[in-house]
Design goal:
The chain has 754 residues and is of the alpha+beta class. Helices cover 26% and strands 29% of the residues.
């Protein structure tokens, strides 16, 4: 780990004597000659600004702790009269070299030292398991026992498997006794099989005698066993009144593997129907700028209201870590000029995403959430620079140039709203953009109307919008794909509802938008992070501000009992409190909500897991060809055995039916393969603009900004490392913001590695 991270032992002398930056900032005065707008706000600086270093990207970790990192910190220790410090360190099972280093102080003196130490036993046993597995995989595990002593040893090795792993043909722990020669090793090959999704635990116990004394060495390895099929979420919702309402989750639960997660919620208000949105955002796996912000936004800005949906979720460590890391990840994407990149590590500003980040930070400030103030100040300065800039029109077909121009005007309209929300009044920009409304996508008109309504304190500008202008209720002007500004009817409707809730939450227009969004939710039309975040915010605010769901006299007296097929009580509901249950605690069969009293209640459920059977192949808006070849380009049939150590070039050919944007392609690996990471070998090439790859233990992910015309070809290399027979998962792809673009390939059978 020290080598991979280039971690250096602290150098105290170098630290104290290092050059320090002057405690001052530089400014230019050129813009004083001709102000661009009011002196009441910071303005853009034509000569440049103060650069800011980006923070490191936040890394996600796997649930199964495969490797135990040797990293121990002892804190403060005192020496004896001879300056000697003695302490005992409890080490994880580890064989190799480690670095021991210390920093010492005494009065005004200080120093540091380091030493490499060899950590090893006379007898060490290592099991070479794959990094992951899939149910049904059968593989060979070499268990190697090393004898580093000067004499032969009789060694007994016992293997235990727990969880999702079993030894082939054995119903009890496997055991072997062998004589291992001095300075030599002994290899025992064991066949194991992954049985079900979950965490597999593999324990190796080694017994021997050393100087007539019995010695024992035990190593525990955790290995994730993941389904070869993509995770799916199923959901449903409805309402109940005085009487009996039935619902059945059995079909959804039984179609997924045993390790399903989900919630069942009952509430007095439609907040219960936001369960699917909240859980979707809490568990979303990717992390570009928009996805990071959207996944955290409702939790940051509307915690009290959404906590009513699922109090346990909001109190969980996972959500707390998500909130703590969100701002760190967002700050890691901020560039020197105050704008934000699409992904951590990118150097190009993402204009719409930067305005979205500014909106998030302004809302976080209004909600009293703690955030780095300089991050907001930097992006507000950039907003003014962006407003005065000309769009970069690419050398592309006319329809692409038109989309870029529309996106620029739309994003600038959004920036006007964010500046207004931040307390400014950019009237000049508001009037200028109003004259160019015809060159915007619908959301731009929504934001301009929102800015005007916010300044005026009334909803006149919002009332001037019709359905065509705002891009809701089936308007035909919205782009064919979400494009640069992530347009969609659901998202635009949620934006509009948020604006109505801010100025006139009791209006008929707001009620109609809320009912439309709830109806789309019941039809599973909340698709992307953008849609789920804006819907959660809009409905959450509207319901809390308008009192939607209360009876006519303001009192809801409805109470209910949730019972199973046999009439046994599972949970009670009433008294204005939300009832939330884990799906795993619910019995199979039909559930009944037996209610009485005045008013109306709402229920919703979500179930997330991996399908038991392979999903049906699907091709909608694009196709993906999945090709294996050798280093010379010769195609390798997937049903023919491969020799251990073979390098395979995987080629994915993504062919769109029409221009598409923001595509995620997931290629899960067969378990016996590992990705060849060119970055570790120093041979990696820079990625072309608009393409990002994410290498993980069990899959390669590609994120593609746009595919305008023709196929897009991406490649990566894998190596066959483990002997056995392994399931080949289907390739999956999706438009992250477009429900009409998705692909699931055929299950490819299995591959044998010899």
């Amino acid at each position: 780990m020290l080598g991979l991270t280039s971690f250096k032992t602290p150098d105290l002398l170098g630290w104290f004597l290092a050059p320090r930056q002057m405690n001052s900032n530089g400014y230019d005065v050129y813009d004083q000659l001709m102000p661009l707008e009011s002196r009441n706000t910071e303005i853009m600086h034509p000569s440049g600004g103060v650069p800011r270093d980006a923070m490191a990207a936040f890394a996600m970790s796997s649930k199964a702790q495969r490797f135990k990192i040797l990293s121990i910190f002892e804190g403060f220790l005192s020496s004896d009269e001879n300056g000697v410090i003695k302490t005992e360190l409890t080490l994880p099972e580890f064989s190799g070299r480690g670095r021991l280093f210390a920093v010492a102080t005494s009065g005004s003196r200080f120093g540091n030292a380091e030493s490499m130490v060899q950590i090893a036993r006379e007898i060490v046993t290592e099991a070479d398991l794959p990094r992951f597995a899939a149910p049904g995989d059968l593989f060979s595990v070499p268990v190697t026992c090393f004898n580093t002593s000067d004499e032969a040893k009789d060694v007994t090795i016992t293997l235990f498997t727990e969880g999702a792993l079993a030894a082939q043909g054995a119903d009890k722990p496997l055991s072997l006794t062998a004589s291992v020669r001095a300075k030599s090793n002994y290899v025992w090959n064991v066949k194991l099989q992954a049985t079900q999704p979950g965490t597999a635990v593999y324990r190796v116990k080694t017994d021997w005698k050393e100087g007539g004394v019995d010695k024992t060495y035990e190593q525990t390895i955790e290995m994730p066993v993941r389904s070869p099929f993509p995770v799916v979420t199923l959901s449903g919702s409805g309402f109940f009144r005085d009487g009996e309402t039935k619902t059945d989750l059995s079909a959804a639960k039984n179609s997924l593997s045993s390790s399903v997660v989900g919630k069942f919620t009952m509430a007095e208000t439609p907040l219960a129907e936001l369960t699917r949105a909240v859980n979707f955002l809490a568990n979303y796996p990717y992390g570009c700028l928009e996805q990071t912000i959207s996944s955290a936004w409702p939790f940051v800005v509307l915690p009290d209201g959404l906590a009513e949906i699922d109090p346990l979720l909001f109190q969980s460590d996972a959500v707390k870590r998500k909130l703590e890391s969100a701002l760190i990840k967002v700050q890691g994407m901020q560039l020197y000029d105050g704008s934000f990149a699409r992904w951590a590590g990118d150097g190009e500003p993402y204009n719409w995403g930067s305005v979205y980040a500014a909106h998030f930070l302004v809302e976080a400030r209004k909600a009293g959430f703690d955030y780095p103030e300089e991050m907001l100040n930097g992006v507000l300065v950039w907003l003014k620079q962006f407003m005065a800039s000309q769009p970069a029109i690419p050398a592309a077909p006319d329809y692409v140039q038109e989309s870029v121009l529309r996106a620029d005007f739309t994003t600038k309209a959004y920036a006007v709203y964010v500046l207004t929300l931040a307390g400014e009044k950019p009237l000049g920009w508001l009037h200028h953009l109003k004259e160019n409304e015809s060159q915007m996508w619908p959301s731009g008109r929504i934001w301009l109307a929102g800015a005007a309504s916010l300044m005026d304190g009334r909803a006149d500008a919002l009332r001037e919008l019709d359905n065509v202008q705002s891009g809701v209720a089936g308007a035909s002007e919205a782009p064919s794909s979400p494009g640069y500004t992530l347009e969609s009817e659901v998202r635009n409707s949620a934006q509009l509802l948020s604006l109505w809730s801010a100025v006139e939450p009791g209006s008929d227009e707001a009620a109609g938008l809320a009912q439309r969004l709830l109806s789309w939710g019941r039809e599973n039309k909340w698709y992307s992070t953008q849609e789920n975040a804006t819907v959660a915010m809009a409905l959450g605010r509207y319901i809390l501000n308008s009192g939607l769901g209360l009876s006519a006299d303001g009192k809801n007296t409805l109470s209910a009992e949730l019972t199973d097929d046999d009439g046994r009580n599972i949970a009670s509901f009433g008294g204005g409190k939300t009832t939330t249950l884990d799906v795993s605690d619910l019995p199979d069969g039909v559930l009944s909500i037996r209610s009485q009293g005045n008013g109306q209640g709402y229920y919703a459920w979500t179930v997330t897991g991996t399908p038991i059977a392979a999903p049906k192949p699907e091709k909608k808006g694009m196709s993906v060809d999945y090709i294996w070849s050798d280093r010379d380009g010769a195609v390798l049939p997937k049903n023919e055995p491969l020799a251990q150590g073979t390098e395979v070039v995987v080629t994915l050919v993504i062919t769109p039916s029409l221009p598409i944007s923001d595509v995620a392609v997931s290629c899960l690996l067969p378990s016996g393969f590992e990705i060849e990471n060119p970055r570790l070998l120093g041979t990696g090439e820079s990625e072309p603009y608009g393409l990002r790859r994410d290498m993980r233990d069990d899959r390669m992910l590609f994120f593609i900004n746009n595919i305008i015309s023709g196929p897009r070809i991406v490649r990566f290399r894998v190596r066959a490392v483990t002997k056995g027979a392994f399931v080949i998962p289907p390739v999956a792809a999706e438009g992250m913001y477009d429900a009409g673009v998705r692909f699931i390939g055929n299950s490819e059978g299995s591959v044998v590695i010899r």
